[in-house]
Amino acid sequence: MFDVSLFLRHNFARVWALASEKLTSLEIGYVSSVMVTELLSPSVGPHQPLNHIRASILPGILKLNLSVDYITDAMVGTISKSLVSLTHLDLRDTPLIEPRITFDLTNSGLQQINQYGKLKHLSLIRSQEYIVTYFRRVNDLGILLMADKCANMESICLGGFCQVTDTGFKTILHSCSSLYRLRVSHGIHLTDLVFHDMSATALCMTHVSLRWCNLLTNHAIKSLVSNTHLKVLDLRDCKSLGDEALRAISTLPELKSLLLDGSDISDSGLSYLKGRIISSLVSLSVRGCKRLTDKCVYALFEGSSRLELQELDVSNLPYLSDNGILCLAKSRVPISVLRMRQCPLIGDTSIMALASMQVDEDRGHGSSLRLLDIYNCGGMTQLAFRWLKKPYFPRLRWLGVTANVNRDIIDALARNRPFLNVASHGEELGIDQWDNSESLHMHDYDDVDELEQWLLEGEFEDDDEEMIDAEINPEIRFYRHCFIKKLW
């Protein structure tokens, strides 16, 4: 690992000339598109005659993952021509200003992709981190030209193609017969018509992400679920989806991850998942679904047993209260990642319930949680922090809290639990920068090496003078005894 910004442009290619020919995978967190183009462009080598053209750099690269300033025709064309064995291409740009035509991707650039026909995975994402911007110079024709060379593509991710309509997206579905993973974000012209005749295609997709596609309605989901082998379904920020979409989704027997942030679903709609797919779901997110209340938790978890759910996001739900979290704690679901940030009715009682929760008899209280995000929860006081202290939540590695509750207590907690990553400024925890939601994976928040394990074995013997121990303070001890007795 090294910092690309430390290299002058004219030295960058010289460094890579020393790279092993056996290198097959390369990821660079940030590099300018000009540097990439110069790196891969055949040119005269240093101290060599003009008739000696430099051999191709990185000839064995199979997977290339780059974050650049601009995705351009020149860069895409150079990559496609120079990396003859490339099977995976991930490009993401984050423009600071609206790109000019010479520093942008056009239909011509898309036509150059997959020159050697070996590409299996393609991802072209324009981030809107700094300004609202899109690939404005790519339309349906560009997608059509690209699809002609991508018949064997298995995974396609497109983000920010604002001029592409249903015609272009349907071309992908009908041309790429091996496609099993599709991701489209900010598809502002993508409508239900794209999936109207899904049953007529030979596709067997397992991963579908359609984030920020606001024209989609329940009818699109009813057609999409004809792919009965779907394992991951990301419908975040599709604001027109409601309970009828959930009814259709509930028929998917292999679904593992379901993301519904910002949709128009209700408590009764979420109840469609119970008894069908809730027992097999590993990840569920309903962040920002404003109509949901405590009843949605009862609908999903009350009376349920042997659930596989490991990740749950109930953030930004104005009507979710401590009663809902109490129901979740009683269900003893083995959740390892719980996000409930910006819930105004969530308070100390929820933390005490989770701290006292036992997934099974062999584990301690609160033992399953590895990530807990309670940033900006309205009812949190200093009492909650007493329950975040050891020995509670022994496997917790990531914690999101609000800094203005009490800065001293937060600092003391961080010192008390040196292997706990405490975020107090609203950062999202455990989110990969590529937001690679189309692939189902669980973060291992519980990595403990031998040194850490040795330190942890003795840490319970030391009392932290900076925080009042909940077991030593008589008032807290009495409160805990009464609370747990009432809860269980």
**Radius of gyration using CA atoms only:** 26 Å
Beta-strand content bin: 5-15%
Helicity level: 25-40%
The average pLDDT is 85
Q: Strand order, main sheet: write it out.
A: 1-2-3-4-5-6-7-8-9-10-11-12-13-14-15
Residue runs with pLDDT of under 50 for 5 or more positions: 436-465, 468-479
Structural commentary:
There is one protein chain. By secondary structure, the chain is α/β, with parallel strands linked by helices. 27% of the residues lie in helices and 13% in strands. It has 16 helices and 15 strands. The protein has helices at 9-16, 33-40, 73-82, 107-111, 140-147, 166-175, 218-224, 243-249, 267-270, 294-301, 322-331, 348-356, 382-386, 407-416, 450-459, 474-487, and strands at 25-31, 63-68, 88-93, 121-126, 155-159, 181-185, 207-211, 232-234, 257-259, 283-285, 311-313, 337-339, 371-373, 398-400, 421-423. The chain has a 15-stranded parallel β-sheet with strand order 1-2-3-4-5-6-7-8-9-10-11-12-13-14-15, with helices on one face. Helix 5 (140-147) packs parallel to helix 6 (166-175) and helix 10 (294-301) runs parallel beside helix 11. The protein is globular, with a radius of gyration of 26 Å. The model is unreliable at 436-465 and 468-479 (pLDDT under 50).
Q: Can you give me a brief rundown of this structure?
A:
The chain is an alpha/beta fold and 488 residues long.
Q: Topology of this structure?
A:
Blueprint: H1 9-16, E1 25-31, H2 33-40, E2 63-68, H3 73-82, E3 88-93, H4 107-111, E4 121-126, H5 140-147, E5 155-159, H6 166-175, E6 181-185, E7 207-211, H7 218-224, E8 232-234, H8 243-249, E9 257-259, H9 267-270, E10 283-285, H10 294-301, E11 311-313, H11 322-331, E12 337-339, H12 348-356, E13 371-373, H13 382-386, E14 398-400, H14 407-416, E15 421-423, H15 450-459, H16 474-487
Parallel strand pairs: 1-2, 2-3, 3-4, 4-5, 5-6, 6-7, 7-8, 8-9, 9-10, 10-11, 11-12, 12-13, 13-14, 14-15
